[in-house]
Specification:
This protein is α/β, with parallel strands linked by helices. Helix content is 27%, strand content 15%. The strands form two sheets. The chain has an eight-stranded parallel β-sheet with strand order 1-13-12-9-8-7-6-2. Strands 4-3-5-11-10 form a five-stranded antiparallel β-sheet. Keywords: Cytoplasm, Flavoprotein, FMN, Oxidoreductase, Pyrimidine biosynthesis.
Length: 367
Amino acid sequence: MPPKLHIHPPLLNTASPWSTSRAHLAALLRCPSLGAVTTRTSLLSGFPHDPSRHRYAFFDPAAGAPLSVPGNNNNNNNTSSSNIPTDKLPLASLNTLGYSPLPLSEYLSIISSFTHSPPSSPKTIIISITGSPSQISSSYALISSFSHSPQSPSPFPLAIEINLSCPNIPDLPPPAYSPASLATYLAALPTDSDIPIGIKIPPYTHAGQFDDFVSALLGSHSPSSPPPSSSSSPPPSTSTSSSIPVPASKLSFITATNTLGSSLLIDTASSSSTSPGPLLPDAGIGGMAGPPLHPLALGNVSILRRRFDADPRLAHLDIIGVGGVYDGQGYKRMRSVGAMAVGIATALGRQGVDVFTSIEKDINSAW
């Protein structure tokens, strides 16, 4: 059985532009209403961030109208936009961002630097990573070595989240939409990790996607062979295969969900043209998050929790529920459908770390 992920209070930030820098992570670590802190998704060598292309914006989910100048996500960006009226809540977000410009080694260095001033209650730090399957293996080796280093031991429990769900990478669709691709990633994971490992998945919108995901977790899709056709032999029965380790046995948790891709904001306020164009640069197509995503995120968490509980080989998987939560009621809804913990990104970008203390106040600390 893989190691258990511990998050208490069961509230955390998710990988986002507002967990990029050391200052971001330090502020999150100081917040007593958080049980874990997630770094922004990093690559071994960092992501080639282009501030003219990789941006984000907040918008009114009812009108679909942008309410802020797009942020360029430099490492010193503020965690809220002062030109958005404080009474205009809830707000949604759309981004054309990629991954962090900081390499994985920089995040390990940042975590190590907190050794001298750890918070009063240790928080789990979830290191979000991505890359090819071989790069994920190398990243895991680097994190494992860091975790066990006697020279610079981490003052925090560590976990690893493998982001297989970003919709904004050209010519690289989210691997978690492809069962064969997902199987390749699962095959690359260690079988005996003492660090909890999870994967972050995109929003699924129909039953077949959930079927494919569960099949990959159970090993029904081999990375070296095509999915079985209707004319092939039937898969082994559950009673026969239950004693055989499945890929899901390498995982401790699932983060559901990431942003919804292929979304667009139109800059209707622009006076430069009679034909309004996209608010964000280039085509403006990116990932949407915040309240419009909330019902879909709830549905994903609910369906996954029921699917996992129905199979003893998957029942150990915890779910971090993410999508559109910005207050205590949203937190309670997410928990009610099976989320072990609740993650927040857009509301963090809008309100800063105060969103977490506000949620704790909303629920009277009744976690």
